[in-house]
Amino acid sequence: RMRLFNLWEMGQDQTKQQIEKGLHLYQSNQTEKALRVWMRVLEKSADPAGRFRVLSCLITAHAEMGRYKDMLKFAVVQIDTARELEDPDFLTESYLNLARSNEKLCEFQKTISYCKTCLNMQGTTVSLQLNGQVSLSMGNAFLGLSIFQKALECFEKALRYAHNNDDKMLECRVCCSLGNFYTQIKDYEKALFFPCKAAELVNDYGKGWSLKYRAMSQYHMAVAYRKLGRLADAMDCCEEQALLVTRGNFFQESMKIALQHGDRPLQALCLLCFADIHRSRRDVQTAFPRYDSSMSIMTEIGNRLGLIQVLLGVTKCWMIQKELDKALESIEKAQELAEGLGNKLGLLKLHCLCERIYRTKEQQQELRDHVVKFHECVEEMELYCGMCGESIGEKNNQLQALPCSHFFHL
């Protein structure tokens, strides 16, 4: 019996050593080698706790590479491993990974359902520490569905957990999501403030963090600057500290990090941001190939929400060139995606663009249809100020949130 126990302990040690070896390779940017090491552990290890830990590594790695279907596959295996361990901490973590996998695949209703499962499995210290991450994932899902009040509630909860646990990494991630939130409802001052706060956190505390945190804060800053019409500042965010020796070219810092680390999701977002900046400068010929590249990666990784943003940009480019029929073709593709996801804000923007196109084409019936649908979207999203009654998100405006997460014009 003692011999069997010693053999079991040795197996645990070997599993731990192999996991650490994989982490070292991954941190050294040798991703494929790390994945091979971890897959061998998964195939050979009989230790459920070791298998659980290696599955966490595989889930994180596949998330950062944009291999979201593989991420989901490993998350499902991890649920079974957690049930085998009969430990509520492991089970909560595995359900969080399942929620995050579905969030990345834009399956927002499933994300919310799994997050609620996590929150119902309380009682342990680790579970309570994960609440902030659960709230953040749920907030991102509500934002994907354009349910803004619930999204804000979740982000504020996540921020409270981050402050209470002194979790700077979580705070940084929440700030990036809040930047995205305020970009969508067009309070561009706050849309810039929160990623700037995220960048400060990276500078002050992030020496040992993944470079992704710095890249994401830079990306959201660039988006806010572009929305504010500060195109030079947006491009500066793109170029800051990113001089590559080869041919002396400047690249966006986020893009540099994304290329070095094989971060396909970040590459797609950076290309989208570049394209939007060029479109804002009315340099359509430079914007189109960047939209095409972003669309290719978004399709590859399964980011349907990102695809809607790309198609919106492409539509606006066709409108600049007065190619209205081609613009309508892009709108049709985007509308199918937005309806499938339940992304109401995407539908609202598409109806707005259709309204402009049909007004130009002097097609009155189609124009009236899209005006009606536009206002239906506004009502569904409750995008009205409780003070003045005017719509929120129509133009850049400073907003103030109440403790109940309703917001109004400042």
How are the SSEs ordered, and which strands pair?
Blueprint: H1 2-27, H2 31-44, H3 48-65, H4 68-85, H5 88-104, H6 108-119, H7 125-144, H8 148-164, H9 168-184, H10 188-205, H11 211-227, H12 231-239, H13 253-261, H14 264-280, H15 284-301, H16 304-320, H17 324-341, H18 344-361, H19 364-380, E1 399-401, E2 407-409
Antiparallel strand pairs: 1-2
Describe what this molecule looks like in 3D.
This protein is mostly helical and 410 residues long. It has three domains: 17-22 and 31-105; 143-240 and 253-259, Tetratricopeptide repeat domain (Serine Threonine Protein Phosphatase 5, Tetratricopeptide repeat); 263-409, Serine Threonine Protein Phosphatase 5, Tetratricopeptide repeat, CATH 1.25.40. The chain is built from 19 helices and two strands. Strand 1 (399-401) and strand 2 form a beta hairpin. The chain starts with a helix and ends with a strand. Residues 1-11 and 241-251 have low confidence and may be disordered. It is a peripheral membrane protein. InterPro entries: Postsynaptic, Postsynaptic_CS, RAPsyn, Rapsyn_myristoylation/link_N, TPR-like_helical_dom_sf, TPR_rpt. Pfam families: Rapsyn_N. It comes from Lamprotornis superbus.
Overall 3D shape: globular
Described by strand count, sense and barrel closure, the largest sheet is:
2 strands, antiparallel
CATH fold node name of the largest domain:
Serine Threonine Protein Phosphatase 5, Tetratricopeptide repeat
Estimate the strand proportion.
under 5%
**Low-confidence region ranges:** 1-11, 241-251
Protein name: 43 kDa receptor-associated protein of the synapse
GO molecular function, one term: protein-membrane adaptor activity
Membrane topology: Peripheral membrane protein
TPR repeats: 132-165
